[in-house]
Design a protein that fits this description.
By secondary structure, the protein is mainly alpha-helical. The chain has a domain of about 45 residues: Arc Repressor Mutant (Orthogonal Bundle), CATH 1.10.1220. It is built from three helices and no strands. Helix 1 crosses helix 2.
Length: about 80
Amino acid sequence: MASIVVRGLDESVKRRLAARAKEHGRSMEAEVREILTRAAHQPHIGIALMHAAQETGGIDELPVPDRSDTARAVDFG
């Protein structure tokens, strides 16, 4: 099994990880392992959408309307 070292982790993140690990009744290392495993297995939404489009015949014939609007600056005041 591989090991990694995370340097420069903010102390507040470490405290939150420790609290989360305690909530789940496991070590902080086990908690981080679970978080990383779940994150690595989440599908990439763009790739998932591309595969879904391919499974339904693709999007080659999808009409793309011309844009007729003009970009404008936003007034935050």
